[in-house]
Amino acid sequence: MGGGGFTITGTEADIRATLDSFTFTPAANDDSNVTLGVAVTATDSNGDTATTSSAHTLNVAAIADAPVGSGTGTGNEDRAIAVPVSVGVSDTDGSETITQVMIEAPAGVVLGGFGPSGASVNQAGQTWTLTGTQAQIEAALAAMTATPPLHSDVDFDLTVTITASETMPNGGEVTTLSADTVITVPVIVNAVADAPTVSVGSGVFNTDEDTVVSLSGLSGSLVDTDGSEALSYEISGIPLGAALNGGTDLGAGVWSFTPAELAVLTFTPPTNWHAINLTLTAIATEGNGNDQASNALPFQIVVEAQADAPTVTPGASTTNEDTAAQVGTAISYGLLDTTARK
To answer: pTM (2 decimals)?
Structure first.
């Protein structure tokens, strides 16, 4: 039974049977000792009654109640991700408090950011244990961060064990000093592309005028090599009339290339060009979400001038025997390369 009074009547045998099954449940989350008043009344056959009263003491031992908690986090790979976790006691009468929180993280994950909370933080392998007052522990958990393994965009879970302890038992007796609750805190990691490396060798490629040149030395590489990113290239500044042995024309002087195409790329300058300034851009693209990052370097193709055979058109002149004839005006000529260098 709960609070209030309860009266049992009947024969002595009936009353005894009822008392043998009689129970009393203390108030929820209350470990205060209880004194029950017991009054027994006897009735004579002539109707006279006599009553005896006594007190029955019920010692209520404190039992720690399982605490509660929750948390989650979302952020970018290669960054410290905020993962605030809240904790609390189920028994809110002031007799219990959070005394410890233990966080287990997957291999490669680093926890931190606990801040100037005053809580004690001890790490052993991939387990971080926080102790202190409940306020200190709550402050540390509110500021907690988790950094994923380098270049990883794999989501992961933190396993958090929260411990609540009886600290002020009202009656002095404690049956269960502490209770644990284990929660799972999910962390979502957004894929972020890492800027690749890019190289243009010496930065200068020499060729003769109107002659193909190999662009061997143009290259790049992924920084994130776990297979989550793809590498591609673009070259900008390509003039009209230039010829390439591979790639895709994107327009406006920009061509794109796969790594295989760039490795064997050749370039034929437009007719009669002598210096071409270009830019190589290496691009990393995340397979999850298509985020991109890039790096770029300039390079130059220097074209050595080569003389082109001029044109000449002979004419015909007429004169009399033993007479000088003007023939120069009948001969025409011209340059194939009309640039200022010729």
So the answer is: 0.70
